[in-house]
Amino acid sequence: MPFITLGLEQFIQWKYGVMGTLGVSLLSLGLKIGSTNCACAGALILALLFAPPAD
Predict the structure, then answer these.
(1) Residue 34: exposed, middle, or buried by beta-carbon count in 10 A (0-12, 13-18, 19+)?
(2) pLDDT class for 1, splitting at 50, 70, 90?
(3) Burial class (CB in 10 A: 0-12, 13-18, 19+), 10
(4) For a FRET experiment, which of 11, 23, 24, 28 has its CA 20 to 30 Å from that of 34?
(5) pTM (2 decimals)?
């Protein structure tokens, strides 16, 4: 399991940079410890990164 997480984190950092890694880390940490604020912050960061740019 740690290898999958490490591989996912490396892919996110390669594709989306430091903010992507921060979003995944906050989301997974929030889900693990049960903090909805932390999980929501991570999900918000990822949603903003995955959203297409406005024209």
Answers:
(1) exposed
(2) low
(3) exposed
(4) 11
(5) 0.77
Please, what is the Cα angle at 47 between 46 and 51, to 5 degrees? 120
CA–CA gap between residue 36 and residue 27 (Å, rounded): 9
Residue 3's pLDDT band (boundaries 50, 70, 90)?
Answer: confident
Say which DSSP state 34 is in: T
- How far apart, in whole angstroms, are the C-alpha atoms of residue 22 and residue 45? 8
Distance CA 9, CA 45 (A): 15
State pLDDT tens for residues 7-45.
Answer: 877 888 888 888 988 998 899 899 999 999 999 999 999
Both tokens assigned to 3: 């290898």
